[in-house]
Amino acid sequence: MRSKNNPSGQKDRSDRSFIEKARRAQIIDAAIHTIAEVGFAKASLARIAARAGVSKGVISYHFAGKDELVEQVVMQVYTDIADSVLPRLLEQPSATAVLRTHILTVAEYMRDHRAHLAALGEIFTNFRTADGTLRYGITANEELYASLENLYREGQRTGEFRSFDPRVMAITQQAAVDSMFAYWTAHPDHDLRAHARELADLFERAVRAPTPP
Question: Which of 133, 172, 132 is nearest to 149 (CA)?
Answer without folding.
Answer: 172
